Amino acid sequence: MRRFLTLSMSVMAFMSFALSSCSSDNDGGEGGGEKQHNGMISGVAQKGQFLKGSSVTIYALDKTLSASGLSYPTQTMDDMGSFTITNVNANYIDIKANGYYYNENRQQTSESTINLQAVSSANSKVNVNLLTTLAYNRIKYLVANGSSFVDAQSRAQIEVLTALGLGNSSSANFIDMNISGAGDANGLLLAASLLIQENRSVGNVSKLISDIAADLEEDGLLSSNLNEEIHRYESSIDVGDVIMGLIEFYEKNKVDDFSIPTFYKFLDTDGDGKMDGQAEYIFKNIDYAEMSIYDPYNPNKGYDAVGFTQTVHFLSTIPFNVKSDAPWLSVEKKTIAENIYAIGIVAQPNTTENRTAHVIYTDNSGKELWTSTYQQKVPDEMVPQRFIVETSGNEYKYIIKEKVGVNGKVYDFKELDNSYYYYSDRTSRYFDIPSADKANEYQCYFPVNMVSMPDGIGSYTLTIPTSLTTDDFPFVALRNDVYGPINNPTSISFIQACPAIMIEGSMFEGSFETIDHLILTADQPICGTATYDFQRGYLNSEPRIDESQTKPNSNGVYQMTIKVNYHENVERIFIPVLLSNCLVKVAYYAANGDFIQSVIRPSYYYGGGFGGQTRGK
Fold this sequence. Notes:
The chain is of the alpha+beta class.
C-alpha cells in the first residue's frame, strides 16, 4: 500500500498557481466569480470518454454555489465526450453528466452508465471528469464554510491528488484536464481513472467514487481503508494494453492528431511502492508483438516466405535508435504520441533457406535496450518432410536408435526439445527427409543394421543375428495418406518388424541380472534371414521365409542362442523370431552354464497399428 503523500514544494507551487489563475480567469479578485459569464460553454465528459448521446446538464449557481433555477441540458456530440451549450448565464456552474464510456482498463465500452459532476466558475471551457467529481463535495463544503471559490478549488484539488497518492507534477486545474491531451497534467487524470477502474464493475467504481468524495468532504483526508482499496489492484494495470487500446479507440473514431498523456509515470505497476516515473528511464514493448516463432515440431519455422509486414509499438522516455542486422529485413521508426513509437518491420520474399534476422534497439550511447528475433520460412516445396516419434510412457523410449532408414536411405534421429510443451516427461525424436527426397508414401525402419530395404518401398529384409539385446529390437512404420498429402510435420509410431517372444522378469525367480544367456528351441525355423511384405499399413501375417538360411540340427530341432545384456530400465525382453503363432521353448542359463529354468512361449506380433496421428503445420 502506498503511503500518504505530504504537501511538497511542487504541491505548494500548484496551490499558488491555481490561486492566481482562478482569480485571473474570473476577474473577481479574492471573492472570485463576480463577473458573470454569458455565452457558450464547451468541454468533454470523461471517465473514459463518454460515448455519443450521453446526457450533460449545466445548472447555474450563484457565488454561494446555490442553484439559481436555470439549467441547460444537452448531449455529447461524439464518442470523445465532447459537448457544447450556448447562452449560459451564470457566475458559477454545476455540471452533471451521465452515460456509457470507454473503459481504458479493459479496452471496451462500459457495461452500464456512470454519473460524473463538476463545480466551476462559468468559463468558456469546462471539463467534467473523475477528478472534478472527487473534488465536488469538498469544494462546496469549503465555500459553505467561508472560503472563496478560488481557495476552495485549489485546496480541494491538492487534497484529492494527495489522497489518491498520485503526487502533483502539474499546475493545471481539474476542469482543464483531458485524458486525450498530452503531458503530465492530463496524465494525472488518466492515471486516476485507471486506478479507480481496475478490476471493478461500473457499480463498484461509482461506489468507490462516492465513498472517496464523502470521506474527503469535511477534512480533506482519506481513511487508511479507502487508501488501501484505491490501490488494491494497481499492479494489475497493464500499461501496454491501455496504450494500444487508446490508439485503436482514437483510430476507430478517426481522431488523427491524438495524444496519450504520460499516465504511466504516476502509477506503481510493479508493486515496489514507487511511481514508475521515478525510474531512470522507461523502455518497453507495449503491444507484445510476436518477434520470433518457436515451435520445435515445425521444420519450417517463422513468418511467411512471400514476405511480411509488422508494426511493433514501444514506450520510451529516452531517445533510441533501431536497426536490422539483415538486408532482407528493413525497419522504420515513427512517432505516434508523446513517448510512444511505432516500428514498421518489412521483410522481403524468401527463396533460399530458412533465415533469421535481428532488430536491435539502442540508446544514443550505443547501449542495447532490446533485441527482437525474426525467422522467415522458405516456400513449402523447399521444406524437408519431418517425422516426429513420441515415446513417452512406453518401453520404446530407450531403444530408439540414432539412425533410421527411410525408403532405402539412412537419416539421423535428433532429440526434440519438449520443454516448450506442458508435459515434461515426453521423450520425442525427429528425422527430416530432404525436400528432394519427399514422397507420397514412406517406409521407416530401425535399427538399420538389422532391417534393410533392397527392393524398394513395400518390402523389408530382416537379418536376425545370434546375439540380441532389447536395444537391438527391430521396428518399422509405414506412412501413406491416400486422401491427400502427408502433413508436415507428421507423427509416426513404430511396431515390431517381425514376430517375437516376450519374456518378463516376473516369469522366473530372480531378475535379468542373473541371466547370462537364453537358448530357444522349436520344431520350426526361428532364426535367419526373412523378407516381410507391407500393404497399406499392416503386416502380412504370412512372411516369406528363406529356408536355406535356417537349418535344423541333427535332431531336427531349430535352435537359437540369445546373449542377455541387462538394461536397468527394461522389465521385459522381446526376442525376434521368424514365425508367428509357434511355440518356443526358452531355457535360462547362468554365466557358469548352470540351467536355471525353462518356459514355453508363443511367438506373435506385439504392438499396435502404424502411426496414424498427424501433427498439422
